[in-house]
Design goal:
The complex is a heterodimer of chains A (225) and B (285). Chain A has a single domain, classed as Rossmann fold, CATH 3.40.50.300. Chain A has 9 helices and 9 strands. In chain A, the strands form 2 sheets. A 6-stranded mixed sheet of chain A has the order 5-6-7-3-8-9, with helices on both faces. A 3-stranded antiparallel sheet of chain A has the order 2-1-4, covered by helices on one side. In chain A, helix 4 packs across helix 5 and helix 5 packs parallel to helix 6. With 285 residues, chain B is an all-alpha fold. Chain B has 13 helices and no strands. Classes of the chains: A alpha/beta (225), B mainly alpha (285). Chains A and B meet through strand 5 of A and helix 8, helix 9 and helix 12 of B.
């Protein structure tokens, strides 16, 4: 994996109407780093990911991100409309968007890779099922399989383990660690601080501004303070 | 009465019935695709509002040129697009957005009726509210057929981004799709409503678009399957509505919308029944 997963933030500020969601955040996620973003509700964690993904407008500042074309983003599950008539296989195959684009269908080779990715997250049996009929944990597995197919240098995960059943968490966590070993940059919004302590080398503590950012053992205590 | 007299004769003997049938079939072809996407994108209310947004512009067209289809269409297109742009700006706010859209809808409808009534007769008001599907002439038929063809082709070309944008808009943005497909779709909806305006009027135009699509959605098919079924439902409702209106002497637009409404009710009930029976049938097999 080439070293283009670096993300540098310069004075990044995001507002929703008059409310400031994120204020003057500066710093750098090194290429290949694995960082947990923690903070109270409304601390701007999801906003930060959306800002890096280019999904929200910045009021001020710059996101310097070489991997702009090779970025994958897992939104919160609530952002996905599960009533949409789509099968698990079709959802996963969207990960190959750059190969087929807006106007063509996924080819056979891509569909085979989608099936492999589904097997990797334990969904091989569910490929033909509509996303409305699978559990929340299975939907998250399918979205992870889509991320695998996206083969991104920078992976943004918004609460990847929230509301997920106990059997699914280790499967997804293994995948995150695999991405980390492959040298991809991973930034994940997290609530489970024990999990952050145990598995994430770096942590960013947000409260609209940056409270602490660095190695988890030095940064995470700011969350309790 | 023979089946022939019941079904074929009205269209065989009366040219205006034939024109109405062709117009309804052309509208059903585009409405299947547009309506299904409206339902899937959870934009039913937007569709309803845009249906009425056509009204003030059509009324201005009426003031300028009388009941000329061309000026009604151009005026309706202008005000429909203006409201679509405004609604596009108001994309946040949940319940507040709902209230805003309904406010648009009421003001547009009242303004349109006031303008038409100012210079026109009660018949003119009824015409813009409920349409005159039995008075479709050749130019209007041509307009409907052209718009319907264009819309079906555009949706076929843009199907994938329109579909993905419906359930996971953030994904489209992160894979680098910057084209405003949502706005393109709103324009298609306005075009479809303007084309339906003469046949169904501002109050009913959304009916043949949403009801067959909502009926088709309850059968649990994929997006493409739903579009095909919605088109079929639209065709069936058009033929049934026209025949009922002929034999029972009812206004045609409302008869067609009622037929579509009946299909919706049957679909809901049947899909519900199948869901309940599924476990029992499953055990038996």
């Amino acid at each position: 994996m080439e070293a283009d997963g670096r993300v540098a933030l310069h004075n990044v500020t995001v507002r929703y109407g008059r409310r400031v969601a994120l204020e003057a955040l500066s710093g750098e996620f090194a290429a290949g780093s694995l960082t947990a973003v923690v903070g109270a509700n409304g601390a701007g964690k999801s906003t930060l990911l959306a800002a890096i993904a280019g999904v929200v407008k910045l009021a001020k500042g710059v996101v310097d991100c070489a991997a702009h074309r090779r970025l994958a983003y897992l939104p919160q599950l609530t952002a996905i409309d599960r009533d949409y008539p789509l099968t698990v296989a079709e959802l996963i195959a969207l990960g190959g968007w750059h190969e087929f684009g807006a106007f063509r269908s996924p080819g056979t080779a891509l569909r085979a890779r989608a099936a492999d990715a589904a097997e990797g997250v334990g969904l091989a049996e569910k490929l033909g099922r509509p996303i409305a009929e699978i559990s929340v944990g299975e939907l998250q597995r399918a979205l992870f399989a889509r991320l695998v197919l996206q083969d991104a240098a920078l992976i943004l995960l918004d609460e990847p383990f929230a509301a997920i059943d106990a059997q699914t968490v280790p499967v997804l966590l293994d995948q995150v660690m695999r991405w980390h070993r492959e040298g991809r940059t991973v930034i994940a919004v997290m609530h489970d601080l024990d999990l952050v302590q145990a598995r994430f080398p770096a942590t960013l503590v947000l409260a609209r501004r940056c409270l602490a950012w660095g190695p988890t053992e030095t940064a995470l205590p700011a969350m309790a303070a | 009465m023979s089946l022939h007299a019941l079904i074929v004769e009205p269209f065989q003997t009366l040219a205006f019935m034939r024109s109405a049938l062709v117009a309804c079939l052309a509208l059903a072809l585009m409405n299947g695709a547009v309506g299904t996407l409206l339902v899937l994108r959870r934009m039913s209310l937007d569709g309803e509002v845009l249906g009425h947004a056509v009204m003030p512009g059509a009324a201005v067209g009426f003031l300028y040129a009388g009941p000329s289809p061309l000026w009604l269409s151009l005026g309706g297109l202008a005000s429909g697009l203006a409201v679509a742009a405004l609604a596009g700006l108001v994309t946040h706010g949940g319940a507040r957005r709902d209230a805003g859209l309904v406010a648009f809808y009421l003001v547009a409808l009242s303004l349109g009726v006031a303008l038409v009534a100012w210079r026109g007769s009660n018949v003119d008001v009824m015409r813009v509210l409920f349409g005159t599907v039995l008075a479709i002439d050749q130019p209007a038929l041509l307009e409907i057929a052209t718009v319907s063809s264009v819309i079906v082709l555009v949706i076929a070309a843009l199907y994938r981004p329109l579909a993905v944008g419906a359930f996971d808009p953030a994904f489209l943005r992160t894979v680098g799709v910057r084209a405003p497909y949502g706005a393109v779709f709103s324009v298609l909806v306005v075009l479809a409503l303007v084309a339906s305006f003469q046949a169904f009027g501002t109050l009913l135009a959304v009916g043949p678009m949403l009801l067959p699509a909502a009926a088709a959605r309850s059968w649990g098919l994929g997006a493409a399957g739903s579009m095909v079924l919605a088109t079929d439902f639209g065709l069936a409702a058009s033929v049934t509505g026209l025949l009922v209106s002929y034999h029972v002497n009812l206004p045609s637009g409302p008869a067609i919308v009622l037929a579509a409404g009946l299909l919706f009710a049957i679909s809901l009930a049947a899909a519900n029944l199948l869901r309940r029976l599924a476990p029992i049938i499953g055990q038996a097999v």
